[in-house]
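Input.
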Amino acid sequence: MNVITQKARAGQYLLSTVGTLSADLAQLAAGPALPSGQILSFDDKTLLYSAYAAPAEGSKAVVKASAILYAPAGAREAPLQVTITARLAEVSAAELTGLDAQVTAQLAELNIIVR
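Output.
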């Protein structure tokens, strides 16, 4: 018997939103494939979003969670336009990738509540 594993569906992490007010279109930097529910950070220099990665211990770099990827994005060699959850939403912690206590607090500043 073949076992089939279902990947996360678009928006599967969402518990509630304020419709289109919660979402934005954004440019995702080139890189590896990312699942729906991936925490994203915004780079002020390139004006692109990328997968959130906490700064190394002792690093002075400021990396902040800025959004959540709505739908899976395949590997890409150039920036890609994607839909993100940017504000005013309630999300499931179990469906998010890259979540930690610091990210939870940063998302709360955007009125994205993690349950």
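The CA atoms of residues 26 and 101 lie 25 Å apart.
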